[in-house]
Amino acid sequence: MKRFTWRLQRVLDIAVQREESLRNEIALLNHRIFQVKQEILARREAVRRLLDCLARQPLAERLGEQTLIMACASVEHRILQGLHARQSELENQRAAKMQDFFQARRARQTLERIREEARQRYLKEQARLEQIQFDESAHVAFARARRPGAMAVPA
């Protein structure tokens, strides 16, 4: 029996590669989001520690440093806003990639279903052709056995 070949196999292979590529892009975006979140947490923790340290100092020592720290706090606040904006942007990109990924997955699953249906049709056709060949062989053997003076063919 000859081997099953499907004309759209290359299209299915490309669909699988696209799905895998999108999966990798989503993983990369997840990693970037994680890094931004870690940076936000680290910066918040640094500000919190600095303010705790400042709060423990006596009032006389604290006044001079407090003005400097409050000036730096506004800069840090702008940096944190930028990081939050970056996080939102990355999450929007991830959501778009997820939509692309789900669409690519549906396309791949559809192609796989069509391929399996074509394979089943092929197997049925091969079985039908094989049965025809067996029937023909049986008819020839039967005809030879019935012909007068012919040798019987052992089964």
Gross morphology: rod-shaped
Helix content: over 70%
**Number of helical segments?**
2
Helix/strand/pairing category: mainly alpha
In the predicted model, the low-confidence regions spanning at least 5 consecutive residues are none
Task: Give the C-alpha Rg.
Answer: 37 Å
Beta-strand segment tally: 0
Along the chain, the helix and strand elements come as: HH
> Mean of residue pLDDT?
90
Descriptive terms for the model:
mainly alpha; 155 residues; single chain
In short:
This protein is an all-alpha fold. The protein has helices at 9-56, 59-146.
What does this structure look like?
The structure is a single chain. It contains 2 helices and no strands. The protein has about 160 residues and is an all-alpha fold. About 5% of the residues are buried. The mean pLDDT is about 90.
